[in-house]
Amino acid sequence: MKVKFLGLCVVAAGMVLLQGCSGGENIRDGDVPIDDRSIGAEGQGDAAYSEGGAQSSGVEMGSEFAGRPVEELLNDPSTPLSKRVFYFEFNSAELSAADRDAIATHARFMNEVRDVTVVLEGHADERGSREYNLALGERRAKVIERMLTLQGVSQDQIQVISFGEERPQAFEHDEESWRLNRRVQLLYSGY
Amino acid sequence: MILNRNAVMKFVIRSMATLLLLCSWQAQARLVIEITQGTEGALPIAVVPFGWLGGADSRTDVADIVAADLARSGRFAPLDKGQMPQQPHSGKEINFAAWRAAGVEHIVVGRVQSRQGDERMVEFQLFDVVRGVQMTGYSIPASSPRMRRVAHQISDIVYKKLTGQRGAFNTHVAYVTVERSGKESLYRLSIADADGHDEQVILTSKQSLMSPTWSPDGERLAYVSFEKGRSLIYMQEIDSGKRELLAEFKGLNSAPSFSPDGRRLALTLSRDGNPEIYLLDLRSRALTRLTHSRGIDTEASFAPDGKAVLFTSDRGGKPQIYRLKLENGRPVGRPQRITYEGVYNARAAFSPDGKRLVFVHGDGKRFRIAVQDLESGTLRVLSDTRFDESPSFAPNGSMIIYATERNRRGVLEAVSVDGNAHQRLGLSRGDVREPAWSPYILK
Prior knowledge:
The complex is a heterodimer.
Chain A (H helix, E strand, L loop, with lengths): L2 H11 L32 H7 L17 H5 L10 E3 L9 H16 L5 E6 L6 H21 L7 E7 L10 H7 L1 E6 L3
Parallel strand pairs in A: 2-3
Antiparallel strand pairs in A: 1-4, 2-4
Helix pairs in contact in A: 4-5
Chain B lengths: L4 H24 L3 E6 L5 E5 L3 E3 L8 H11 L3 E3 L17 H6 L4 E9 L4 E10 L4 E11 L3 H17 L8 E10 L2 E10 L6 E6 L3 E6 L5 E6 L6 E6 L5 E5 L5 E6 L5 E6 L6 E6 L5 E3 L7 E6 L5 E6 L6 E8 L2 E8 L6 E7 L5 E7 L4 E7 L5 E3 L7 E5 L5 E8 L2 E8 L5 E5 L4 E7 L6
């Protein structure tokens, strides 16, 4: 369960001092081993990220996140930040109003903690063609990326990766599995 | 020598265990073909077991392979060996009256002669039983390990002679297999003969492999691999295994497809914001962007003359097939929408004669394989399953292979273009998907 998480830590480790590598509830089975997880040749955001060099583990006073360490915030199931998987209808990239509210909270959080980065993993269910689904997964992740950047989050804090239908969360060939598989997962580095 | 009973039992049990182990290993590495629906009006033919002259051999059964090839095409109904009135090995041994009485219209006879070492000479003749005359006959030199290939060549000759159409038996299929064990998945990119034999794994990865596609000379495959954590396009020489990273742009790198002259690769990149079709010149590495829409444009596939690409786009709301004309690798005019029936049409490919296209057709409930005539626009659904994907034409246009799901497993199926003959290629475990039928093999 922790494998992906550790992988992200390795990627980020050269850039910023991290608080730790434990926890994370949206990580699922069957993920990549550490050394396979690289962000790619044109990985975004690394430069700005390392220049900032901020190692804030807490948040400024006066905000909704006031005075709480980032790690604790992200692991607190009572805040909207704990919602890090967003589901979609078939062949759709539209989010519900509740999801948009949760994403707005993520945006405020990322605006305050400028050294936090997130990978938006887009996924699709198995129906239809694989290549189209790869594009559909990206479209879903980019809808969330756009919401975050429109609310001020730096492009450098976000990376979009689509896996299309290649990494299902549920393996049955039925509506319930398809619903769980049409998703975007927010994976914060290091938390 | 007296053996104690216990020791014998132990030996037997150990042998059986070894045998089982061997069996499971073999089963894993082999696609099994099963003909699920034959054709009415298939031509009655007899392929008589070939004679062997000069010594024993591994005895690759040439006649069995030819008969199985012809049966799979749906155009022929080979006679069972048990019902053959005689087993002639040459023309002068044939009793035509006996074969006419057995209802056979054509007969293939042949013999294999051992020469030095591995060398063989395979001779065969095809006869018209009704008229009692030879239609064709060849002597083909071959080494013993190439006997299956020779059998497929014989099938090609017989098929051409009797149907007028070039045979596609001496071809390959590339495909991806996935085996899950616990939290790990193992992906293999493999190539097998079109009859499922002689599988060769060309790449193994713990990350997804997708979209294998053949170079027009049949010597390379391009595909998508997630080995670096996201979708990138690679090209690999089949014989040497040498591979090359072709596309690692920001965003998606997906859906590669070679131009018919092998000089360019159509591909999908989202480096400019959303998925668009580009052409990559394989020599200069120059990129030309072909599409400009706010929707998803992907799954490009060239016309056989290289003067157009088909692609999937949801610029109109839902995924549909579009065609864009090309001149010297540059787009001409605007893309034209080709499909109007159904709510989801994707992953199109031209037939080798360029007159039809095959694609995944979604009617709101199922995703099936359909063929559409380009000129008339007439669409015909060829499959009857729910989750059909990745259709690919045989190079002679006679059959289409595609991936589907049976009993919750990924399998490959092939269907004749008229929809009459069906066959299934399944693995004993794991899933198999994304078949790509090779071009004609020239070597």
